């Protein structure tokens, strides 16, 4: 079924990588209703084409698998943000949007329906806007915090982070709860799950990352995907949408 979907991913300019993970587009959605969205630790800003109207939605973090919404959306473009973007680019918290989202004004950042006609042009316009919003300076504690978390694919303790970024464990957890609505531990579990997906796609169904044992691995994968690693590998009906990115060249 995914053969009918058109997916494209573009990485941001190096100057934006602290804030932006990628730009993506997904088209020909009107006949695809079986999709499952998996948690990935990113904050998505969706620009959706609904007939001749533009709908812009800011999504909170997903902490569990979610069926694709039953909306009359034929296509959407997305900006996937890293958490630092909340404070420095979007300038808002998403703590109240865990496993949900909210609609933004349909002229947000001066976008309009015509901007969804060309993905490359959309990315160029979005990049210019994002570069204009970049701060002159980032709190080094926060930048280093996320750098360490990503380098470890979430396999790092709060004690180790606290020692390396010179922030107390309480400060770190307060920051995560205030900005993202979840604890550091929960966020790291999501990152480790997401980092496990490429191995599962290759058929490696035993722990490749730091899970306690096979039982713990299966439990964590099932918690965040809704199915066992074996069922996730089969990807029946190509329903796990994040798998598209691993087949994009």
In short:
With 249 residues, this protein is of the alpha+beta class. The chain has helices at residues 84-90, 119-133, 140-151, 158-165, 169-179, 184-201, 214-225, 229-234, 243-246, and strands at 6-10, 20-27, 36-37, 43-50, 53-59, 66-67, 75-81, 101-104.
SS strand fraction: 15-25%
Q: Measure the end-to-end span.
A: 19 Å
Question: Which sequence of SSEs, written as H and E, runs from N to C?
Answer: EEEEEEEHEHHHHHHHH
3D shape: globular
**How many helices does DSSP assign?**
9
Q: Give the helix/strand class.
A: alpha+beta
- Biggest sheet character: 6 strands, antiparallel
Describe the structure.
- The protein is an alpha+beta fold and 249 residues long.
- It has two domains: 2-133; 140-246, Homeodomain-like (Arc Repressor Mutant, subunit A), CATH 1.10.10.60.
- The protein contains nine helices and eight strands.
- The strands form two sheets. It has a six-stranded antiparallel sheet with strand order 1-2-7-4-5-8. A two-stranded antiparallel ribbon has the order 3-6.
- The chain starts with 5 loop residues before the first strand and ends with a helix.
Furnish the topology, listing elements before pairings.
Layout: E1 6-10, E2 20-27, E3 36-37, E4 43-50, E5 53-59, E6 66-67, E7 75-81, H1 84-90, E8 101-104, H2 119-133, H3 140-151, H4 158-165, H5 169-179, H6 184-201, H7 214-225, H8 229-234, H9 243-246
Antiparallel strand pairs: 1-2, 2-7, 3-6, 4-5, 4-7, 5-8
């Amino acid at each position: 079924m995914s053969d009918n979907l058109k997916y494209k991913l573009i990485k941001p300019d190096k100057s934006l990588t602290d804030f932006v993970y990628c730009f993506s587009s997904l088209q020909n959605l009107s006949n695809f209703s079986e999709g499952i969205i998996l948690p990935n630790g990113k904050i998505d800003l969706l620009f959706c084409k609904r007939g001749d109207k533009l709908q812009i939605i800011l999504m909170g973090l997903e902490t569990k698998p979610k069926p694709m919404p039953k909306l009359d959306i034929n296509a959407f473009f997305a900006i996937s943000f890293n958490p630092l973007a909340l404070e420095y680019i979007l300038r808002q918290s998403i703590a109240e949007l865990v496993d949900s989202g909210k609609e933004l004004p349909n002229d947000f950042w001066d976008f309009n329906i015509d901007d969804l006609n060309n993905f490359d042009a959309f990315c160029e316009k979005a990049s210019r806007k994002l570069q204009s919003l970049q701060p002159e300076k980032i709190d080094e504690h926060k930048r280093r915090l996320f750098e360490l978390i990503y380098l470890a694919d979430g396999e790092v303790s709060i004690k180790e982070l606290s020692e390396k970024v010179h922030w107390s464990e309480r400060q770190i957890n307060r920051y995560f709860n205030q900005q993202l609505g979840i604890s550091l531990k929960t966020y790291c579990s999501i990152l480790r799950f997401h980092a496990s997906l490429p191995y599962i796609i290759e058929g490696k169904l035993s722990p490749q990352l730091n899970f306690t044992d096979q039982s713990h691995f299966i439990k964590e994968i099932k918690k965040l995907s809704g199915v066992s690693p074996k069922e996730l590998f089969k990807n029946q009906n190509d329903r796990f949408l994040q798998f598209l990115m691993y087949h994009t060249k």
